[in-house]
Design goal:
223 residues; mainly alpha; elongated; disordered N terminus
Length: 223
Amino acid sequence: MKKLLILASMLLMTSTAYASTENVAQGMGQKAIRGGVNLVTGIVEVPMQIYKGYQKGFGPIKNEVGSKTLGTILGFFRGFGHAAGRIGWGGLELFGFWTANRPSNEGVGIPFDAEYAWQMGEQYDIFDPSLAQGLKPIPVKLLHGIADGFLGILEVPAQTIKGAHDGNVVKGLGKGVWFWFSRMVYGFGNIYTCLVPNPPDNHGYPMSGDWPWSSLSEETATS
């Protein structure tokens, strides 16, 4: 536990979010570290969300006592949802550290308040601008999960063609297989965690295109 707290403190002092990077080793390391920390500390979201709920209250209720009481109760349930998201996504990043990934999760899944569970950050409001719009990232995440999980194999011909254009078919084929398995890992991960929050960004090597067929469409268009 002492070592975990030391690690958490070090991460807190260097908590500037890392973006996706084409440095494969660096990206894998960043992803594994964040995944491990979120996997172990995800449960911290429960007391943090209770505290945030108490501090924020529940806007529609004007009575301060009633507002803070309901905010605390909602924070309790929100905390378990966020904890489940951190633990699930943490495991995905830790054990899938070798994968490539989408550069950003913007609009894909409800975002965490902050990089790590103990940070305040800014809460995502599912009622802004409307409930329908606020919940939209959930089905988008599920759709991306299904597409990546079942159609990720399209990366193989796309990257192979790209490799041929660059004069290295073998490298293109290898990259295509890597991207295929990466899309499957993230795809089924997105399906499994579609109802719980996830990071708004990704560490690691970025795949080209949001969808499995994006790269193939680009290569076909330029052929």
